[in-house]
Amino acid sequence: MNNxxxxxxxxxxxxxGQRVKHGGYSFLTKxxxxxxxxxxxxxxxxxxxxxxxxxxxxEKNLTAAQIILIDRVVTKLGVIRCIEExxxxxxxxxxxRLSPSLRESYLSYNNSIRLDLAALGIDKRRTEEFDGExxxxxxxxxxx
Length: 144
Known about the structure:
Elements: H1 8-14, H2 24-30, H3 38-55, H4 64-89, E1 93-94, E2 97-98, H5 100-120, H6 132-140
């Protein structure tokens, strides 16, 4: 099979991966972050814990599908955070064109996360159940 018959992604991967050095590709394929992006790991760990708490409240209370979706969200979020850090350190524009990391994948990853969060049911703010007696007690200092 020649290179023309292969997908562009397969050809690009065989040639050594992406040319942009934001670290998202390494995180996606190896689960590793560059040394200058270790703070992103703390962010991702907190994001995963918060997603589990929103749905669980513990991981043991989740279905396998929910855990898979949460892990995919965290992986995609890692790529996005690496791209954002790279852009913060470098530039948004290269000449008259948008930086390749923004132009090629940033919006796709963000949209994919949005869809995953919607599938998990995390598309609305958490609302607490209204307790009228508690409200009156806190507001007026007496029972209703």
